[in-house]
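Entry:
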Amino acid sequence: MSTKAFFRSALYILWGVILVWGVAFAQNTIYPVISTQFRHVHSYINDIFSDVVYLFVAFLPIIWAPRFFGYQLGSISKHWKMLVGMTIFFIGAPLLYRLMLGETPFGVNTWFFEGVVVPLAEEGFFRGILLSMLLWGFGKLYSSTMADWLTIISSTLIFATAHLNNLGDYPTGFVLFQVGFSTIVGLAFGYTRVKTGSIYPAIVLHALFNLAGTL
């Protein structure tokens, strides 16, 4: 590989990481301003405001390069058994948590926020933009298998640690549990994204997982 190609790939990876923290910073800066200016809007509108930057950035690829960012059916039908097993797990896990410990802090959120806004925003951003950029960058540097796993692990670590932003909004113990479980969730969602070539399974699984902990 030429030096130019190496730096181009590395820049792609670095840009993906910088984008994540840039969007997170913008969201944390803009939302308090929006929520102050529009205090009496409907709760569903406020739900959108709470992730408005993530949603805006996540939906840009649909116009720009949808297939590259996973907006296609890919090989979903080929891996239906795996997806059914994951569906059972991601519905059962939060239900078991609630059975053992009672109502989760997410119970105070609306079904629309947890079941629609968050899955579209986070999956579109982390498994859409971030994962795709990392996969392209690592794919130019390593073998296909190595690139796949480096992408899944890297995007998962970034996704999991991003949940530390919830400190102060939810009990610390729950946030730490969320970071740990987000690691499992991120690995699973990243794996389905790479394996099927589609972002849709991750969006649906994320929605089911959140709804099971909210409704």
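The helical segments are 3-37, 43-50, 52-64, 80-101, 111-139, 144-162, 172-196, 200-212.
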